[in-house]
Amino acid sequence: MTAMDISIHASFLPQDDPEAALAFYRDTLGFELRNDVGHNNLRWLTVGPKGQPDTNIVLSPPAMDPGITDDERRVIAEMMAKGTYASMVLATPDLDGTFDRLVAAGADIVQEPADQPYGIRDCAVRDPAGNMLRIQEHR
């Protein structure tokens, strides 16, 4: 049996303020805006790292599934506000330089660069919607 040829095309993160999300992912992280779709006063933004056209993050309105109840929407909003609803791990070859640029841009810093006991060096920030982004140093 041969391995399947599968890659990650898109991951989804919630956003509750498209302009703030766009400013963070495009202007602070340097990602490209690849798609901006609006429907019924809602916006879905697709961004991704330059030079990686097949890797996308879709920043979408939270709790859009019609099967989600009002109580579930409230819980999702509360979890987003605490930074416990969604997360993503990014990587950079220059963690200290990346961290300095995040600080200069006013990013919500959760953890400064640190060596972790499991063998990586990383930092943590939150995007404008509260999503936790861990950034690892990748050599």
TrEMBL record:
It comes from the Bacteria. Residues 7-138 form the VOC domain. This is VOC family protein.
